[in-house]
Amino acid sequence: MFTTNPFDALSALSITPEMMQMYIILMAVLVAGGTILDMMHKKSAKYFFLDSAKNAKAAKRTVSTGEKAGIAVATIASEVITSSEFCNTKRRISHLLTMYGFITFVATSALMIFGSDAIATETLAQFWHIGAIMLCLGGYWFWFFIRVDVNSEGVKWYQLRRADIFIVSLFTTATFALIWSYLQSKGMNGTVADMGLTTLFFGLFILSNTTLFASVLWSKFAHMFFKPAAAFQKRVAHADGGALGLPSDFDLASAEVQAKFPDIPQYMGKNPENMGPGIRREAPNHY
Fold it and tell me: What pLDDT, on a 0 to 100 scale, did the predictor assign at position 187?
């Protein structure tokens, strides 16, 4: 099972490599189209560039190209590769399993379908199965135990909303793919033991996969492109002194600060106590 390319058996269903390649291209077009429509509908790109221009005007110094390159590397290492923005450790691990599982699963699927002379088919098949298993672990863990509305708001796990299309189609795609691959491996001498059942789960795999990529407009897929860009912009804004238009941290006991905000000594005294970390006082139990 783990060393067999599951797509090889599709020839028995009269599905040619060209048809599979066209399907992959179609899914890529759906992702691109859904992302563009999402940007137009939410006006997220317009907001991003307007906010970037606003931050540029508030900048107190110019960030050099070299410094921006360093910030870009730090952003990729922190927000992309390790997803350090998640304070909840369980949520972070679930996200990393899902993210790297998805990337591995999609990349190996494309390589096996389009063909790759650089990597052995058995190796690709192994990583394809590993990616699907990682997707299932991260997806089901999130769905049953970590989701904020299930974990904190008492919503039942089986209550579905349109926003759930992405995660549900994501882990069902991986689940049906693994079952489909397993059923193929049950046959003798390279034959499929139960062609009807195998075809059923292949159809469910295609249905879930198509739903995943066709529903980008209603999912968080476009968020994956904006998240690194927004994180980079935030770091640059702090580096140039603009700080996204937010006020600096004040020493409330400072005479200069109390002169600027006379209500501080009036309501808190001339030597206000440190109120502590605020929201960070408790362990996070949310997204």
Answer: 57
